[in-house]
Amino acid sequence: MVSEPKLSILFTAEQIAAAVKRLAAEIRRDYHDKNPVLIAVLKGSFVFLADLVRELNLPLQIEFAQLSSYGHGKESAGKIRVVKDIQGDIKGRHVLVVEDIIDTGLTAKFFLEHLKKKQPASVKLCSLTDKPSRTQVKIDIDYLGMTVPDKFIVGYGIDWDERFRYLPDIRAIEDES
Ligand code: IMP
Ligand code: MG
Fold first, then answer.
1. Which atom of ligand 1 lies closest to the CA of 105?
2. Which site in 71, 121, 158, 159 is 20 to 30 Å from 8, CA atoms measured?
3. Which amino acids bring their CB within 6 angstroms of ligand 1?
């Protein structure tokens, strides 16, 4: 049987919705006339992206990329690679990367550098959450939803080994027994 970890709610669906609304207002102010390309990093950011674009309600393009950093479990595999690259051309475009969580920062740093080689007009980063206690490389998060404590989080698209993405709120894993 799969063990059931104890989960505690960190952010309710209402708190997340308020954060998304605030982020959308900031992004709209900066991008309303820029027809930006939002690049969502799969899979964890799919719920956030869906809520964000509807709250933004402005002309934009969407691309998806998938990176691998974590294998199974909760520790980074350390090596990052592009599993699925974006399809569209972003040369000369204003790009906004949409992430679920910045943990060590290694994935975001790698991906921002990867995108810059494609010569966009600008690249900025929007992340729903940041876990500053785990930072290994300093990343400027241009639009940040909320800071999370040094705990493994799940829900609202974010998984633990593909589990718990469906939860409407964000929860912390308190133990694994
Ligand atoms: P980083 O390269 O260490 O910043 O890790 C980034 C990726 O690791 C995120 O996009 C997530 O997929 C995953 N990750 C890091 N921390 C958590 C967590 O607390 N819950 C679920 N996934 C996480
Ligand atoms: Mg993940």
1. 4
2. 71
3. 44, 69-70, 76, 99-108, 152-153, 158
Reported as a single tens digit per residue, the pLDDT across 126-163 is 999 999 999 999 999 999 999 999 999 999 999 999 99
Q: Helix %, strand %, coil % for the chain, to 5?
A: 25, 35, 40
3-state secondary structure of 72: coil
- Of residues 89 and 75, more confidence is placed in 89
Radius of gyration for the chain, computed over Cα atoms and rounded to the nearest angstrom: 16
pLDDT score of 3: 76
Å from CA of 99 to ligand 1 middle? 9
**Euclidean distance between CA atoms 16 and 153, whole angstroms:** 14
CA distance 80 to 48: 22
Ligand number nearest CA of 153 is: 1
Q: Which residues are catalytic?
A: 103
Closest CA to 146 of 91, 101, 89: 101
Q: 76 vs 59, which has greater pLDDT? A: 59
Q: How far is the CA of 32 from the centre of ligand 1 (A)?
A: 30
